[in-house]
Specification:
CATH superfamily of the largest domain: Aldehyde Dehydrogenase, Chain A, domain 1
CATH topology of the largest domain: Aldehyde Dehydrogenase, Chain A, domain 1
Distance between the termini: 77 Å
Helix content: 25-40%
Radius of gyration: 25 Å
Shape: globular
CATH architecture of the largest domain: 3-Layer(aba) Sandwich
Strand order of the largest sheet: 15-16-17-14-13-19-20
Number of strands: 23
CATH class of the largest domain: Alpha Beta
Strand content: 15-25%
Number of domains: 2
Largest sheet: 7 strands, mixed
Length: 498
């Protein structure tokens, strides 16, 4: 019988009791490798109860104690990079190098959280009035629900939980049911770092678990990363239930290439950002906007690089691009490619029908490249989340900016040019949350915050960095006066500064 991946509640693994489970596949072979327990409402309630019980002691623990635990976790995580990478590759399908890079970026957020003594400093204004001082502090919000996607099973949980925990909250992590094992291993590492029981809990499952976290009165805040329709629903429903919500949605990231750009650099960037992790990244470049005559010179260079890409399982050290996460997702990506052909785009590289020897049942789609894509086409409108790169041709730079700004998604964008004035104009006029100049995937370092605009982010706070600290805390302002021997008596007038 296949292994059943348990929940992690109150400091230890807990087998599922709902009787419901879901399959976990090896995407490179298409074979089921495990089952994962699907939480019932009662199991989510037990996780919330554990987190609620742990909250009082944890929020009152000293910053020094929290810092020591964060540093221990950081060191354990650093030592487990290869182990975690192997788990990610086995369940997600991305290459070991890609998986290791994911863990490294998550580690950087942990290192940021280790500076919690500086991050949680308040403000003080003395003598704002006679004998009156003002002090502001940031306090934890309570139990936080963290709902994370399949494409980064280590990095996105590490975007959320270290910041939430460092700020004094307790957390319930609900990872994707498609690749759940990484979250359990992270919980074990937290336990080894001596995080108190109940501060971090992991519940697996589907819509039942998510809806209970949204509805549960004991959950104060929700963090989410996933598709735009689900992000919008979680934001609306969570807000309706009185929770603060940050919900990061989908993307359609454009990369503008101007005629003066370094075309070898641009081609390298387009292929790397378009096909890395089989395109299953919210910061993947999925549209190249070729300005003027640059497409005719750029496309041959992109095609040269695509031909040399090696698609295969993570177990093959020479693989550069792995499979997609599930059969269903593979079929959806293939249907998008079919629609591009049917709607009249020119297909220059066709990833349909790819079979990897020895892994014929794997969920592979080869690198696909379209030219002459129009904004009305499905492959332009939708977030494909696969190895499909579309080239849209425009005559002028202004037209390119307008094209990007009309799109409903505004997660990331990039421009490739050697013209500083054009880059500066692009930076100022583009209506996108993260901008790269000759950088195709502009993911900020942990000391900054990650988040898009428009339909790519619901809620006022981006994730991790300073805005993450603000999201997982709320301000309290204390106005204090210590009485002196002279009492001024009753005064029903409006309080005035003196």
């Amino acid at each position: 019988m296949a292994e059943t991946i348990p929940h992690w509640i109150n400091g230890s693994p807990e087998p599922g009791s709902s009787g419901r489970t879901g399959p976990v596949f090896d995407p490179a072979t298409g074979k089921e490798r495990a089952r994962v327990a699907f939480a019932s409402v009662d199991e989510v309630d037990r996780a919330v109860a554990a987190a609620s019980a742990a909250f009082s002691d944890w929020r009152n623990s000293s910053l020094s104690n929290r810092t020591q635990i964060l540093f221990r976790f950081r060191n354990l995580l650093d030592g487990a990079k290869d182990e975690l990478s192997a788990i990610i590759s086995a369940e997600h399908g991305k290459t070991h190098d890609d998986a290791r890079g994911e863990v490294q970026r998550g580690l950087e957020v942990v290192e940021f959280a280790c500076g919690l003594q500086q991050l949680l400093k308040g403000d003080n204004s003395a003598r704002v009035s006679t004998g009156v001082d003002l002090t502001s502090v940031r306090e934890p919000v309570g139990v936080v629900g963290c709902i994370t996607p399949f494409n980064f099973p280590a990095m996105v949980p590490l975007w959320m939980t270290p910041i939430a925990i460092a700020c004094g909250n307790t957390a319930i992590l609900k990872p994707s049911e498609k690749d759940p094992s990484t979250s359990n291993r992270l919980a074990e590492l937290w336990s080894e770092a001596e995080l108190p029981e109940g501060v971090l809990n992991v519940v697996h499952g589907d819509r039942v678990a998510v809806e209970r976290l949204i509805e549960h009165p004991g959950v104060a805040a929700l963090s989410f990363v996933g598709s735009t329709p689900v992000a919008r629903a979680i934001y609306e429903n969570g807000s309706r239930h009185g929770k603060r919500v940050q919900a990061l949605g989908g993307a359609k990231n454009h990369m503008l290439v101007l005629p003066d750009a370094d075309l070898d650099l641009s081609a390298d960037a387009a292929v790397s950002a378009g096909y890395g992790s089989a395109g299953e990244r919210c910061m993947a470049i999925s549209v190249v906007v070729a300005v003027g005559d640059v497409a005719d010179r750029l496309l041959p260079k992109i095609e040269e690089r695509i031909v040399k890409l090696r698609t295969g399982p993570a177990s093959d050290a020479e693989s550069e691009m792995g499979p997609l996460i599930t059969k269903e997702h593979q079929e959806r990506v293939l249907s998008c490619i079919d629609s591009g052909v049917e709607e009249g785009a020119s297909i220059l590289a066709d990833g349909r029908g790819l079979k990897v020897p020895g892994h014929e049942g794997g969920f592979f789609v080869g690198p696909t490249l379209f030219d002459h894509v129009k904004p009305s086409m499905r492959i332009y409108r939708e977030e494909i989340f696969g190895p499909v790169l579309s080239v849209v041709r425009v005559e002028h730079f202004t037209e390119a900016i307008e094209l990007v700004n009309r799109n409903q998604y505004a997660n990331g964008t990039a421009i490739f040019t050697n013209d500083g004035g054009a880059a500066r104009r692009f930076q100022q006029e583009i209506q996108v949350g993260m901008v790269g100049i000759n950088v195709p995937i502009p993911v900020p370092l942990a000391a900054y915050s990650f988040g898009g605009w428009k339909s790519s982010l619901f809620g006022e706070c981006s994730i991790y960095g300073p805005e993450g600290v603000h999201f997982y805390t709320r301000p309290k302002v204390v106005t204090s006066r210590w009485p002196d021997p002279v009492h001024r008596g009753v005064d029903l007038g409006f309080p005035r500064s003196r």
